[in-house]
Amino acid sequence: MFSRCTMAEVEEQGRKSSEESSDDSEEEENEEEPKLKYERLTNGVTEILQKDAASCMTVHDKFLALGTHFGKVFLLDIQGNVTQKFDISPVKINQISLDDSGEHLGICSEDGKVQVFGLYTREGFHENFDCPIKIVALHPQFGRSSSKQFVTGGSKLQLYERNWLNRWKTLTLHEGEGTITNIKWRANLIAWANSVGVKIYDISTRQRITNVLRDNASLRPDMYPCSLCWKDSTTLVIGWGTSVKICAVKERDPTEVRDLPSRYVEIVSAFDTEFYISGLGPLGDQLVVLYYVKEISDETDKEFRARPRLDIIQPLPEACEEISSDALTVRHFQENECRDYGLEHSEGESLFYIISPKDIVVAKERDQDDHIDWLLDKKKYEEALMAAEISFKNIKRHEVQKIGIAYINHLVEKGEYDVAARKCQKVLGKNMELWENEVYRFKTIGQLKAISQYLPRGDLRLRPAIYEMILHEFLKSDFEGFATLIREWPGDLYNNMTVVQAVRDHLKNDPNNGTLLTTLAELYTYDQRYDRALKIYLQLRHKDVYQLIHKHNLFSSIEDKIVLLMDFDKEKAVDMLLDNEDKISIDRVVEELKDRPELLHVYLHKLFKRDQHKGQKYHEKQISLYAEYDRPNLLPFLRDSTHCPLEKALEICQQRNFVVETVFLLSRMGNSRRALQMIMEELHDVDKAIEFAKEQDDAELWEDLISYSIDKPPFITGLLNNIGTHVDPILLIHRIKEDMEIPSLRDSLVKILQDYNLQILLREGCKKILVADSLSLLKKMQRTQMRGVRVDEENICEACHAPILPTDTAKVFNVVVFHCRHMFHKDCLPSPSTIPAVQFCNICSAKRRGPGSAIMEI
């Protein structure tokens, strides 16, 4: 199995084994989340590396193959357990190669042995060469290919393949440029590195298509070997020393081929790194790079070997961007050289194996669980909870609710009780046990108020005791908060009688506390004890008393409380009483308000406004009420009421000297002259007098008005300005004394003349319109009468009532049709000797002789 460990743990283990090293100082904590996680490969690997040292390793999706310095090859499962062991050589295994199927294995060793065989059969290639073979690579489709191709690299690069006789054929692809240290075969392309640079060979065309020279020729190729990896079938990444080059294999334009290879290589990216490269691996469009690191000691000023680094970088055309960087404390890293490290990756999933002589560490991309682990470790609980909620289907080691509870605990520890309580609603969901545990915890820390507003009150209900406990807590110290909860919480959450008793106990010490009394009324209302709730509302003059009465139909309970309701809010009380006359009669209300006439007036006034006939028997009483409390509305009442006794009203108005109302009553009773006299003598208002005379339209009143005004110049001016359309102004002018000085007389006379001219113009205009309309209608009537009249057997003679047409139309007959459409037999009309020469319709002439009755003879 893997030994799971964070980088901090790996570094701590390295510190214990390197106490004398100068680089064991602690690094500052990096707040940026790592991209990879690390596990040490253990089980069988641990035992192997205790006695031996790893020299190389290759990776397949199904298993691992590990070569050692003592010439052994071990096949391991992905947990590091040994499944097979091969004793190949007494010396170091240089390279192991697998085909894509994982069924064939190629091995080479320092003593020149090369073995290629199937894991399920030992038939294959077995050869001993007289020089070390550094590298071997099988064709990716070795198992499926009939030619069974593979290449070896030592002092020269050789291609082996079986011919049609099943014999091995050897072809030297390259030699003379030093030892070949690395080979990577992908599809039909073979890339290899020697002391000079990197070559790529196309096995399908048997052509070498490029030569990429190494940049730093001063580095020993055996100490700083070249690292190769194919990102895909046409992209090769080369790492050598501190230089990285990304090469793209492209097809050449057929018109340019001639003697050139059909493919060529373009370097799409080239940049330098800070440290020496020990291995490369693809990660999407990024690269994973294993660095061999040397640093200078601050104390001795000497160079020492530091922990290797595994970086993720984003290649750019001429540089790279560092995405993440991790220092790895592998065992005995102080003793390792650049050539001792290796990086292998699994094609099936993003797994990277860091190989060193005494340690193998597996790096893999962090999943959502790892991301949540990191957030929790950094106490970023809110982000962890959000990440878990978004990816709840993909996480395996975490539960959303447990993360949420950890977040709540963290908030409580920080003292953010309100935020913690709010999160409970989302995190605890419908788990009643968790809810009750949280409530008791908040009680323990004295923060029940914080969680009160978030308690479940819908489908999920806690035990009533929980809610009662919180209500009692509020009742001790926060009456307003207690009242708020009573209003917001459904009454069936708790035992209503228990809470009522607790409130009553508190009211014994503070009987006038309005908040508690209001809350008690609400509790009584929920308990359907409306009479008690109504009593409290009335005592407090609370605005909700009317809603309570309406909602629960408490009209029978308020018959003796009408005065209290009116004292509290007259408008609302009257509207309620009038809207519910069927429940509280008008007579009952009047009886209750008889000792409060000012309230009675308000009620009867609104009743009269709604319906002038419903309270007609109280109209006589209303006269005195209006006179006493609301004189402005007395005159409108007298005008609109048809049930008001006028004599009684006149008596009251005269007693109180209400002149305007008295004038109205006198005029209504027919005493217009007395009314006009009051206007002139008591109000001294000529305009009102003139308006009154216009309303009555009585010549005698105008005469009285003129007689009264003839010795009062201001009144004469008013009459001259207003009577022109009702009385002939000459009558007034003739009666004015010659020496009397009248204000604005000239203006008044001018106005009279203008009014007269206006009347003349109006009459002339009306005459013209009338004549034009008459002429138009006469022409229209003439055109209508000149039209033909249909006479058929359905028409009858208006005299004898026989059909107008004879049955035998061959005989001569005479019919008279008048313009009024009445028809007669000519014989049925009086003879010409007895009537004038121009005949008229007998029927129409009897009603009214007119132009429509003239004769039209047929």
TrEMBL record:
Protein's recorded name: Vacuolar protein sorting-associated protein 41 homolog
Chief place of localization: membrane
Location of the RING-type domain: 797-845
Family: Belongs to the VPS41 family.
Entry function: Plays a role in vesicle-mediated protein trafficking to lysosomal compartments including the endocytic membrane transport pathways.
Species name: Huso huso
Record's compositionally biased regions (Acidic residues): 20-32
Listed InterPro entries: Beta-prop_Vps41, Clathrin_H-chain/VPS_repeat, TPR-like_helical_dom_sf, Vps41, Vps41/Vps8, WD40/YVTN_repeat-like_dom_sf, WD40_repeat_dom_sf, Znf_RING
PANTHER family in alphabetical order: VACUOLAR PROTEIN SORTING VPS41, VACUOLAR PROTEIN SORTING-ASSOCIATED PROTEIN 41 HOMOLOG
PROSITE patterns per UniProt: CHCR, ZF_RING_2
